[in-house]
Fold this protein.
Amino acid sequence: MENNKLILCGIGACLALSNTQAEEQKKETTGPNVLFIIMDDMCDWVKFLGGNNQVLTPNLDRLAARGVVFSNAYTAVPLSNPSRTALMTGIQPFVTGVYNNTHEISNYPIANNSLFMPRHFKNNGYKTIISGKIFHTKPSSDVMTAMWDDMTNIDGGYGPFIKNQTLPVEIREKWRNYEMWTGPDTDFADVRNSQKIIDYLGQTHDKPFFAAMGFYRPHNPYTAPKRYFDLYNLEDIKLPETLPEDLDDIPAYAINNFIQDREKTALINATGNCAQQLVRAYLACVSFADDRIGMILDALDASPYADNTMIVLIGDNGFHHGEKERWGKTALWREANHVPSVIVPPKGVSSIVPGSVCTTPVSLIDVYPTLVDICKLPAVENQLAGHSVLPLLHNPNGDWAHTSISTFLPGNFVVHHKDWNYLRYANGSHELYNVKNDENEYNNLAEKPEYKYMVDSLSKFLPATWYTGPPEVTVNSISEDFSSSEWDTEFLRLNPTYIRPTAGTNFGAINSADRYFDKYLLKGAVLGTKGTPNCIIPEITHGDANVAIAFRLANTGSSSYMEFPTMNNAGNITLHVRNGNSTADGKITLQKYDAEDWTTITELPVKFANSYNATSIDEVISYPVNLNEEVKLRIHGGDKFVQVFRVDVTPFGISGLNNFKSEFFSLQGRKLTVRQPTKISLYNTMGALIYEKIIEHETELPAQIGNGIFLAKTGMGTQKIFLNKEL
Ligand SMILES: [Ca+2]
Ligand SMILES: [Ca+2]
């Protein structure tokens, strides 16, 4: 228990030392080359793991046959950004604080200042190359350039995105849809990026290399060349096995926090063959990536590096396809955390038997120390939480004293140890499964007296303390008036050479191209500033200052946006804007950072401003965001120049809304039935009280309340209701 605290305190101090030591030890190496391949959202649906018996992964299978398969490997976090941060630093998320996709590595010092795996290779005589998606958010740019020799093919994007809508409107989402792609293969970053690695393997290198290839597939959008869809007959697609009453023995905390889209799952299952379409599309994406991996293997085998290259292949997190009534990752169950993990030693390491399978649970946090061990790099002291699995490569059935822990959000952990998965949530509720007998985790044994000994014994592996974030950093609302004198001063501080437009400058002049900006974080973000402030318009009075300052969103949408700081929740957003076009209406879009990318919440029309330069009246547009969760928003340029003078985001007012279940009353149509007499108060999503009544048993809600989402507060608690929709 004390140990964890010591690690937490000691790590920052020790990292600096590790970096310095590593720098001093720059030297020639005779270690093997490393080909490091990671697939995004690759769950255990690869043939050699048996998670799906229809999937076709001939190339992954032949890779597995060359090395050792860890058939019970688990990610550190079932989500891209924190998973990859843990993988590349070797530090647990509950130490770095990088738990979510909104937690950018560069803002988390323990992670950002650590000795990243590629840097350690580079410091020790390796050439390092990155192609595709290895990180989700990145360390700061100096840290990135220090660890990679070649970043020319970094990233590339999840696209191409769906053009032809295939699923019914009530099912489809930006990240839940599919399309058989008929454009060229090079539309996909995976094709361009894997070609880069293939070319790299064809070149002569004077040093050993660490080549990291990050595939975007099988991550959605489920677009893949049509021929991969053709591998699977839709009529033959089998859905994963599920148990109707599976959730009955799961704690309420888990259901409330991790199975929020239960209704959506039911809708997918009930709507035509949507579930089969989604499963098939995922399988197509797996086979697409598999094919490209085969091409990399062929290139390696034909290269001078065929004999002295080790290969690591992993997925960053798993995925539920309807199991536990959910689609997605971000939960503690096996589907979300179980990933492929294969290590292929360089040829000729005779003591490692090709095609071996090790069933001992291991973690992706073990990858970094394992590579250090195999490649004989200097030990990284006081940083790596995992353990080298080299002994298991030699003897897959050997003893293993360590355990694998996956984390999702502070205080929620799952311990994978021997045959057992033990899930413990932040509120103390728990689940215990014997995955050897019950790989689908149907039968929760945690509350059974005869398994108390096992709960007690596995609990000892849980971290005693974890990072919950500095309490003061949360931003509950934003209010920024860019026409304030503080902003005026700030602009000049940021850019002393900035010259204000002279009095009388009209909007056309301000439109000159050099006044574009790409990205500006609001001052409230306190994250630093990027981009160039746009303009000060002297003739327009705004707010209580004599000059009106504004940011401009350009008319080329993709390059112009204003990003807000992460908020715990967001209520109503209000924007003071003016359209720079004097003859045509325009629009801007309000976007939310989703699990992986920016998604449009709504488009906001901005009327044309006939005499922009003369008027002092802003157009005030308002939109109820009403997201009771951690949220990052931005406004994004549309099709016309739009000046933004003021932004206000109020917090989502009423707390305690996590429980959306029908705990306190039931609603059928507009008939509200309470379990016991209570006063009920209905609020709209702006937090305004619109109805209040003491109800003995049941009441019909009056029609003037209208349809939509409301918050119902009772003596027993508060819950969200959907009027005119099924609760
Ligand atoms: Ca992922
Ligand atoms: Ca169950």
Q: What stands out?
A: Residues 472-649 form a domain with the Jelly Rolls fold (CATH 2.60.120.260). DSSP finds 18 helices and 37 strands in the chain.
